[in-house]
Amino acid sequence: MAGKPKKSFIYPQVFFTQPWEWLSRYRDINTYIVMGLYGGISFGMLLYALSVQQLPWWQVGLLFGAGVLTWTLAEYCLHRFVLHYVEDHPLIQRWHNFMHGAHHDVPRDLRFVTASPLITFPIAIAFWILFWLLLGFKWVWAFYAGFGMGYVLYEYLHYAIHRYPHPPLPFLRGLWRNHNLHHFKVPEKRFGVTTTLWDRVFGTYQAEEEPRS
Q1: How many other CB atoms sit within 10 Å of the CB of residue 81?
Q2: Count of C-beta atoms within a 10 Å radius of residue 171
Q3: Residue 165 belongs to what H/E stretch?
Q4: Which of 16, 133, 146, 204 sits in a 20 to 30 Å window from 40, CA-based?
Q5: Selected residue with higher pLDDT from 104 and 50
Q6: How far is residue 179's CA from residue 190's CA, in Å, rounded to a whole number?
């Protein structure tokens, strides 16, 4: 399903006149880099919460679950308000194309599916600091482990939707359908990837039209 870019397609670029092909060369394996990096960090934080902080398993479970749920909200907000933010200013248009616009131009090109850790890692640190300030040092580890694993799940699911035409399990069919509708019919709706919960809460779900009889 990983089609080649269209002849008219311009590789994402921000500040330079030449396309950033050097960054695109390894982007087809970004998903696996992300899974190894953030999955390992999240697992380490989970062990830290259990062994060093010595939190009860039920408390770790609640914090972990809250972290996953918080990620789904962050996923929705980042996708809707950051990745889909574009204005007429040329620099903003270039930044949008680099961050997300190219992905919508060639949705089957796997090089533009998963964000580079060079971009996401500083954002991950900023989120950790935010949660540390809100929750405190003792509870942030288990919470952030869930937040990080939510991100890993998002990136892999996003990759799988663009890589495989059909979901491996029947219960995932709705998520496949939801994201394909976002790309090919309603790009300003259906922003959730791992869940449609926040689209329903904030009114961006837009139910499909019933076929006419």
Answers
A1: 10
A2: 7
A3: none
A4: 133
A5: 50
A6: 7
Measured CA to CA, the distance from residue 119 to residue 92 in angstroms comes to 16
pLDDT > 90? residue 84: no
* Other beta carbons within 10 Å of 187: 12
What does the pLDDT read at residue 31? 84
34-47 residue pLDDT tens: 899 999 999 999 99
- Note the pLDDT tens digit of each residue in 108-122: 888 778 888 888 899
Give me 116's structure tokens.
């580079």
Task: Cite the beta strand spans of the chain per DSSP E.
Answer: none
Average pLDDT, the chain: 84
Other beta carbons less than 10 A from residue 93's beta carbon: 13
The Cα angle at residue 100 between residues 92 and 5, in degrees rounded to 5: 115
pTM comes to 0.85
Q: Give yes or no for a contact between 134 and 34, defined as CB atoms under 8 angstroms apart.
A: no
Spatial contact of 13 and 177, defined as CB atoms under 8 Å apart: no
| DSSP string for 66-94 | HHHHHHHHHHHHIIIIIIT---SSHHHHH
Judged by DSSP in three states, 195 sits in: coil
